[in-house]
């Protein structure tokens, strides 16, 4: 017997377009970057094996939408809602390390590789970032190449730069709760 998990969706406005998100009863499972479309969220859910019919997030089970709004208003720097992550053991390890990079800061792929004890895994760190289903919350936009260039980003380099600039502008503001 296959147990189907309900997935609820919502959207929040940002200065650069909508951010769509999906939550299960366990926590946030997927978030798009600003300006992506609902189809991008649906595609991500298929990739994660969560392609069930989505419903509008009227359940109020999670604070995902309100915390994302606070972030995009410059009022939140860390997130407190639960995550329902789907990934390999390595990806989960990388994503946990990404969540330790402070708001308004930038680390390199090499620094993340060192932080997880795999100093030669820079390319694999980039691949794990590319599979990150929870950008913003798991801030892969804060990871750049060792030479200072932006590297890649699922939402595009313009979006990555906008997020980095936004965090620099607001990093002196309220800090929300402690990092996950």
Query: At the third CATH level, what is the topology name of the largest domain?
Result: Arc Repressor Mutant, subunit A
What is the topology, as strand order, of the major beta sheet? 3-2-1-4
Compute the CA-based radius of gyration.
Answer: 16 Å
Mean pLDDT rating = 87
Question: Beta-sheet strand percentage?
Answer: 5-15%
pLDDT < 50 stretches: 175-180
- How many H/I helices? 6
- Class of secondary structure makeup: alpha/beta
How much helical structure, as a percent, in the residues? 25-40%
- In CATH, what is the homologous superfamily of the largest domain? Winged helix-like DNA-binding domain superfamily/Winged helix DNA-binding domain
Q: Separation of termini? A: 34 Å
The biggest sheet, with number of strands, parallel, antiparallel or mixed sense and barrel status, is: 4 strands, mixed
Q: Count up the domains.
A: 2
CATH architecture of the largest domain: Orthogonal Bundle
What shape does the CA trace take?
Answer: globular
């Amino acid at each position: 017997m296959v147990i189907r998990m309900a997935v609820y969706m919502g959207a929040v406005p940002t200065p650069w377009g909508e951010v769509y998100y999906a939550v299960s009863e366990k926590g946030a499972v997927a978030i798009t970057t600003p300006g992506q479309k609902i189809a991008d969220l649906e595609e991500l859910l298929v990739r994660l094996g969560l392609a069930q019919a989505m419903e509008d997030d009227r359940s109020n089970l999670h604070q995902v939408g309100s915390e994302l709004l606070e972030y995009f208003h410059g009022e939140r720097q860390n997130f407190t809602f639960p995550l329902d992550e789907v990934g390999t053991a390595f990806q989960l390890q990388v994503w946990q390390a990404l969540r330790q990079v402070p708001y308004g800061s930038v680390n390199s792929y090499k620094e993340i590789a060192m932080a997880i004890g795999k100093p030669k895994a820079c390319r694999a760190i980039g691949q794990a970032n590319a599979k990150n289903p929870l950008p913003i919350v798991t801030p892969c936009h804060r990871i750049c190449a060792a030479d200072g260039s932006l590297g890649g980003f699922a939402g595009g380099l313009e979006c990555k730069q906008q997020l980095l600039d936004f965090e620099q502008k607001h990093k002196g503001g309220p800090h929300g709760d402690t990092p996950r």
